[in-house]
Amino acid sequence: AFFKLPSDSFKYLRWYDIEEHDVRGNQLQCPRVREGPSEEELFFRGEEHTLKKRKQVTDTEKWQKKLQENWENCAELNLSFQDLGDLYQVENFKRILQRLIRVEKLWLVDNSLTDLSAIRLPRCRELNVNKNHFTSFKELPKIPRIQHLSLAENNIMTLSGISDFRHTPLESLVLKRNPCEFQERYRQLVFSSLPNLKMLDGIPKLPEDCSPPDIRFFFRMCTIL
User: Which keywords describe this protein according to UniProt (predicted)?
Assistant: First the structure.
């Protein structure tokens, strides 16, 4: 037989919608930030028992919830697997990202993200956006202090825009399972664009990675007299 856990009725609630606690956002590493399914969808799922009566929220209560979120003081945060199913979910998600002014380590894995170029993360040193839908480096957030960036399993076609990270302290970069990985002289091109990079796709910088791309090209040329 299937028995529901006592917490089953709260599974679609964000943590600050649960009464009688004072947990703040910066005290959580993996908070639920997306909205739950609509009332209609819950009805068709046969989960209408999870519905909570929605009371009118006053401006004071809205302000208290904003303070309780406390994103401004988060240093490490995991917002992966949020299942951002519609436009509202994405807009609310970006609203939270805009408040992460002190975050240093951030995980946004598997969120179907396509463009965060309007977001600035001034203190972020480690960013993991694996398994999203980015197609270009230009679609990433502004991360001037980035040291470790993971972009595995996106859809980045070319290395265009990668030189924007030349003036950052970027030390390691992961581009595994992106189309650009199959570009000719891939490693040489990345390291020539990012002279301070120490590791690419989990492999340290090798002597052959430092050879200028044009020299390798020269030896493949054929002169016809």
Answer: Leucine-rich repeat, Repeat
- How far is Cα 78 from Cα 208, in angstroms, rounded to an integer? 36
| DSSP SS3 for 150 | strand
Task: Count the neighbouring beta carbons within 10 Å of the beta carbon of residue 29.
Answer: 13
Give bridge partners of residue 172 from the DSSP assignment.
Answer: 148, 199
Residue 12 pLDDT > 50, yes or no? yes
CA distance linking residue 121 with residue 100, whole number of Å: 7
User: What is the enclosing helix (H) or strand (E) of 91?
Assistant: helix 87-97
The DSSP secondary structure of 93-107, one letter per residue, reads: HHHHHTT-SS-SEEE
DSSP state of 141: P
pLDDT at 225: 47
* Token pair of 137 as six digits: 């480096």
What pLDDT sits at residue 219?
44
Angle at 3 between CA 22 and CA 84, to 5 degrees: 55
Residue appearing with tokens 């807009």: 91
The reported pTM is: 0.80
List pLDDT tens digits, range 169-190: 999 999 999 999 999 999 999 9
Residue 152 to residues 72, 109, 126, 155, Cα–Cα distance (Å): 28, 10, 14, 9
